[in-house]
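Issue 218. Parser rejects a valid record. Input:
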Amino acid sequence: MRRQSTMRRFARWHIWLGWLVGVPFLMWTVSGFMMVVRPIETVRGEHLRAEAPVIPAGETATLHLEGTARSVTLLNFPDGPGWVVVREDGQRARYSPDDGKLVAPPDEEAVRAIAKASFTGDAALESVALTDPTDPPTDFRAKMPAWQAHFADGTNVYIHRQTGELLALRTRWWRIYDFMWGLHIMDLQTRQDFNHPILIIFAGLGILGSVLGCVLMFRRRKAPISRD
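Output the parser choked on:
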């Protein structure tokens, strides 16, 4: 009798927990499905990125800088190679490999050329606009000065305002994936925090509900009364 009473109590808890975590479980399942329905390489738009040509050996001069730098990288741009220097404060600049002088930031025309050269899709380039580094677009989120080149198929190409580097390529599917990831970790604001209390509490309740469901599988039920 005591065992039956305990099982009935477990059953009530299981029902209430089911109502409580049902929506998060459905949200986790749907968002998880949406994130695996396409290969991650397609989501990232790797098939739309143009590979930069190899820089021929011996065609660049050594760069001499004053002060310290976090990194110095030789990259290839549509108009030729260039040294990209990242200072200790995070500021970036491009220097000529021929004479070591600072290269002026690309204008809109140059940005359009970089965007088209970086994108291998068939969609046309629709617009080019500056982004606000203090409030970057949701599909970029990097707080750095950049241009956004928008293509007709929904792809956004982000180019650094000072150096002309390709910073990111975001397809329309990437933005869907990113939104689903935010749902999955219950963080639609930054979409980076998957250790916050709300997620941990609902995950714990989900585990508890699953354990109760497993226990109730061993619940004894009375056989139906025959009317014959």
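Fixed in the parser; the record now loads. The helical segments are 2-36, 40-43, 108-118, 172-184, 197-216.
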